[in-house]
Write a structure and sequence with these properties.
mainly alpha
Amino acid sequence: MVADRVVIESAGKVRGLSGTVGSAVFDILNYAFLGLLGVLAVFPFLEIIQISLSDPAHVTPDLRYHLSTWAQTASLDIYEFILGWSKTLIGLGNSVKYAFFGIAISLTLNTLVAYPLSKKRLHFRGPVVVFVAFTMFFSGGLIPTYLLVRALGMLDTMWALVLPTAFSAWHMIMMRTFFEQVPAEMEDAAHMDGANDVFVLARIYVPLSKALYAAMALYFFVITWNSWFHALVYLQDIAKYPIQLVMRNFILEGHRAHEITNLPFYKGYYLDDPAVQKILNAALMVVTIIPIIAIYPFAQKYLIKGTMIGAIKG
């Protein structure tokens, strides 16, 4: 009996040691794999930054860059050239304005729809939810939307970019799912003290949803910031163009540099020179993506938490 117990205890220790070693090996391999993926994800962006800092004079005919001379010739001249273009700063200001109003209106609309739909006492709650979910799979299309925007007198205004995409069925459903998790006792206590639904929404539900709002605000910001097609369709005034559309036109005008007499040269080169085009395109990508990269680290924890609490019903 004693011998059997010793064998069993020894086997248990061996299994425990084996489990510890296995966990350590798994962690090492997991970190190595994820680290490799991280490097592969960052490397293209670092290459774009390197190209944007290059000098056209050190670019070979096959558009390769001499790393040996890159450190001595790298400069921020291309960014000074881009930001010195009068339309660039206007486009940045327009994009910030559209993103701010877009986030504010989107969060407000989605909240005002999600809150009542989270209450089982709402009449015809089911058909309304089905109707909203229907819009996730079917839409009127570009032409009916354009005709509606024109009929409402919103062409060539900020509202043509903000209002048509303000409501999101997917984000509303996420928000409604989270609202349904809030304990009903909190709302009942507030109603007993004389609070109405507006007070309950503003003082209970909204403060409890800060992480969710932060995640959705980041989603809306990325969508609004990267949008250029709607601006191309609805805006005629160049002074109202967002940065994405300004950069697109900058690239197109660069390809037609010989045809445009008032477009400045870059270091004595036409903008349709292949080397300058590659450097210019890389710099434009960096300019447009920097705001998103700058915001994401501050919103990352809210993004993860907000996505989880809005998607999982406990």
